[in-house]
């Protein structure tokens, strides 16, 4: 067999990579005694195997980051600058939408993931395709289809083959396309062929184009952290914010609404038609609103409905289920129709700060919302100076029993309220070893804060999360029905969008298959370097055997790269609205 496959195989080897030819070291350093094919007994690697492994001598050629040239390589000339690139959308059914591999499919572990049921093809999320394909010289574009679950497949060259059920994107060399003087091309979210500027390399800090006068964002949100995180992204770039917060915690950030007309904390989430009409009449000629380039709506996302008649660019960025405040069948369907109208305008943006809500929007509307995480940078950094493992706050009626089960897994585990009665500081969190989350939601703002500080996080696997949820009613804020009635629903009050028939209902909170399918889209399972456990004994093993400082370092690196990417993406999309104002 080896004689047949040796020229078409990727082999990683820690001890004999040089022996058979073509072997490579594993791309990351070993943590403790972990190894491929390890035998696990009672949640712990078999000790005799670990002892033999650690006692073995590893050749230098098989160590991460080493090469073994026999003579020093000759000096190389500087590489020419990378030519500018553009990223062009191929509309559904257009030439190129059904491009095949044309031979062996391209693959690079740095950019690719596998997709269930598809072999030897490089999958990547559609919302990440521009960044990944754009950073990969071998990638010429991607092809996408509804049943790919938000993924596309990379191609090394793009043909003119087409399919009525497929769309895609093509990477092209050339000047960055602009729409008029000083502005970047319109967002890719609309349904026509568009070109957008190629984004920065991950973690880079290339300068952003300036705007004069300063870009201005309007918000009257019901959550201080949603717009607060965007401020941390964009205020350093000179973006001005008109923040008229309706949140009950607005005093903390000194952003409580001043001179906000018509809307109040009592009528803002589910405004009546009369309130909507009064709001539009009050702001039709308002100079303060007129000064804003963009209106951003997070919590609730449907707040943007009120601004539709006022000719403003609208950025709908869902941070929880987008039907918040529109939960009856009639109001939800009306909001869906309006959201599709918003998405069809190239000035506007439909997005979510997490993959769960992006997939949720697509399930009910067919809109491919982009993902703009609420990523931030924090002054505080992980220290891990104590051996304490905190349990994050629980919103479950079974909280006491769940805390007891978690504490039984290790003597180091303690509920956060017991460790820090009352308020606690970010520095206090940074001193602990890690935080166990038994999630009440699939995306929370505290997740982004703790991740940005590099605090290691532990979470049940989606399957174990279901077991805990079904027994203890754990994930209490995943569906609005559960929030409003304290009862777990078994179905949504409206049906899915065309093409979503057969996908499990996200609001079926009593079905294991549906729950696990949707839980996998939560931040806990889509962000890297989160430590998962599949049982209480597995939690204890993870606590005892994880290299926490290594985990923290990787989290901080990923957060930095994500921060730069989202900062550039959001700024450029706001700037683009300057050249698309009607």
What is the gist of this entry?
The chain contains 19 helices and 20 strands.
Helices and strands in order, then pairings?
Layout: H1 2-5, E1 40-41, E2 44-45, H2 47-55, E3 85-90, E4 113-115, E5 118-125, H3 129-134, E6 141-145, E7 151-155, E8 166-173, E9 195-197, E10 216-219, H4 224-234, E11 240-243, H5 250-253, H6 273-283, H7 287-290, E12 294-297, E13 313-318, H8 329-344, E14 349-352, H9 355-365, E15 370-371, E16 389-391, H10 399-409, E17 413-415, H11 416-419, H12 426-431, E18 434-436, H13 445-452, E19 457-460, H14 462-472, H15 480-485, H16 512-519, H17 523-526, E20 531-533, H18 536-545, H19 548-576
Keywords:
582 residues, alpha/beta, 7-stranded antiparallel beta sheet, globular
Descriptive overview:
There is one protein chain. The chain is of the alpha/beta class. Helices cover 30% and strands 14% of the residues. It contains 19 helices and 20 strands. The chain has a 7-stranded antiparallel β-sheet. A 6-stranded parallel β-sheet has the order 11-10-12-13-14-15. Helix 4 links the parallel strand 10 and strand 11. The protein starts with a helix and ends in a 6-residue tail after the last helix. About 9% of the residues have low confidence.
């Amino acid at each position: 067999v080896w004689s047949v496959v040796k020229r078409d195989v990727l082999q990683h080897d820690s001890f004999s990579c040089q022996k058979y030819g073509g072997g490579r070291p594993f791309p990351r350093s070993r943590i403790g005694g972990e190894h491929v094919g390890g035998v696990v007994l009672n949640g712990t690697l078999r000790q005799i195997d670990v002892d033999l492994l650690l006692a073995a001598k590893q050749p230098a050629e098989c160590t991460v980051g080493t090469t073994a040239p026999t003579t020093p390589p000759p000096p190389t000339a500087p590489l020419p600058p990378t030519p500018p690139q553009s990223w062009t959308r191929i509309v559904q059914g257009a030439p190129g939408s059904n491009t095949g591999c044309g031979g062996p499919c391209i693959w690079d572990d740095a950019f690719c993931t596998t997709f269930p049921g598809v072999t030897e093809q490089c999958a990547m999320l559609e919302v990440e395709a521009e960044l990944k394909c754009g950073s990969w010289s071998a990638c010429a574009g991607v092809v996408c289809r509804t049943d790919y679950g938000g993924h596309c497949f990379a191609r090394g060259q793009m043909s003119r083959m087409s399919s009525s059920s497929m769309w895609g994107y093509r990477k092209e060399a050339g000047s960055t396309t602009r729409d008029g003087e000083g502005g970047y091309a319109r967002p890719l979210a609309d349904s026509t062929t568009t070109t957008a500027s190629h984004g920065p390399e991950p973690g880079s800090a290339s300068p952003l184009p300036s705007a004069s006068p300063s870009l201005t964002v309007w918000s009257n949100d019901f959550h201080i952290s949603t717009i607060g995180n965007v401020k941390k992204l964009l205020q350093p770039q000179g973006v001005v914010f008109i923040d008229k917060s309706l949140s009950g915690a607005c005093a903390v950030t000194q952003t409580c609404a001043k001179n906000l007309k018509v809307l109040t904390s009592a009528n803002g989430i589910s405004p009546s038609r009369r309130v909507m009409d009064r709001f539009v009449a009050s702001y039709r000629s308002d100079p303060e609103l007129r000064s804003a380039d963009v209106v951003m709506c997070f919590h609730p996302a449907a707040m943007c409905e009120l601004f539709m008649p006022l000719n403003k660019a609208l950025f709908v960025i869902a941070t929880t289920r987008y039907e918040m405040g529109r939960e009856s069948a009639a109001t939800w369907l009306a909001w869906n129709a309006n959201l599709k109208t918003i998405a069809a305008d190239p000035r506007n943006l439909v997005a979510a700060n997490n993959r769960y809500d992006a997939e949720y929007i697509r399930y009910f509307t067919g809109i491919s919302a982009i993902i703009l995480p609420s990523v931030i940078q924090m002054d505080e950094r992980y220290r891990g100076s104590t051996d304490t493992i905190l349990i994050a706050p629980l919103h479950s009626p079974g909280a006491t029993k769940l805390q007891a089960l978690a504490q039984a897994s290790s003597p180091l585990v303690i509920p956060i309220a017991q460790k820090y009665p009352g308020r606690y500081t970010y520095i206090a969190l940074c001193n602990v070893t890690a935080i166990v989350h038994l999630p009440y939601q699939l995306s929370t703002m505290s997740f982004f804060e703790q991740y940005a500080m590099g605090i290691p996080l532990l979470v049940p696997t989606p399957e174990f999360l279901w077991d805990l949820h079904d027994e203890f009613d754990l994930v209490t804020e995943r569906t609005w029905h559960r929030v409003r009635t304290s009862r777990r629903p078994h179905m949504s009050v409206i049906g899915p969008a065309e093409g979503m028939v057969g996908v499990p209902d996200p609001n079926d909170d009593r079905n294991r298959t549906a729950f696990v399918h949707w839980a996998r889209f939560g931040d806990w399972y889509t962000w890297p370097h989160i430590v998962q456990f599949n049982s209480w004994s597995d939690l204890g093993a993870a606590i005892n055997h994880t290299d926490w400082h290594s985990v923290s370092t990787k989290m901080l690196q990923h957060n930095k790269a994500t921060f730069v990417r989202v900062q550039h993406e959001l700024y450029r999309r706001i700037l683009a609205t300057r050249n698309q104002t009607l």
